[in-house]
Amino acid sequence: MKVNDLIKENYDTLDKNDIKLYSYIMQEKTDFIEKNLKEFSKKSKFNESSIVNFAKKIGLDGYSELKYLIKWEREKIVDFDENEIDYTYNDISLSMNMIKGLNLDGLFESLYNTNKIYLIYTGYIQKNLAEELKRNFLNIGIIAYTLDIKNDLELLNKNIKRDDILIAISFSGENTILLDFIKKIRKKIILVSITKLSNNKLSQISDYNLSFVSHEVYRYEENTSIRPVCQYYVIVDFLVLKYLNYKSKYKKKQENA
User: Fold this and answer.
1) What's the pTM?
2) Distance between terminal CA atoms of the chain?
3) Which of 41, 71, 137, 243 gives 20 to 30 Å between its CA and that of 221?
């Protein structure tokens, strides 16, 4: 049985920290396999007891058995698992449940009243997502500006004002160029990040982190792999839907005041 099966079977017993840990392990399988419990705890910033308890919550004896199972899965990755459709469905469901349950009223109030919104991205997929979010925002009367981390940081630094919203889109949340830039302007902006679910640096410094769960479903060679990205778009769609819901409730409240 795969770890993803165990997650699905025991989902009701897991909390958000458990899901973050699971996502981190899936992203850092090599580290998890090669490091002992103490080393992995230090690297991942999850305490040892949390890691052991997570393993027990999903029906394993502890860290060693979880490590063995992850190693076994990794060695079999070259053979496509027919259950990957179910595993990916589970990732999408987890992502939807997380964004659905997130209270974003503070962010939506800022969106309703803010001067400008900037969307900054770190790669090709992230660029497509930023353009999609920009288009959706425009359809509901919100103007947003898309910016490329490689070319537009100076322009952004020159134009961004206090209480403007910066939505940073980064899969890993660990892009050093992006992080170094944000540190310079952090105090005057409202920072929203869209990242994978993990203890990444970008999510930790954000006012709002919209995270998703994703894992590698197939690896042909060391540097050739497939990882679903539709969760990115789930986050964007739900962000817009939740904002429309907030706006509708706000108008009704004003009418009844």
Assistant:
1) 0.71
2) 56
3) 41
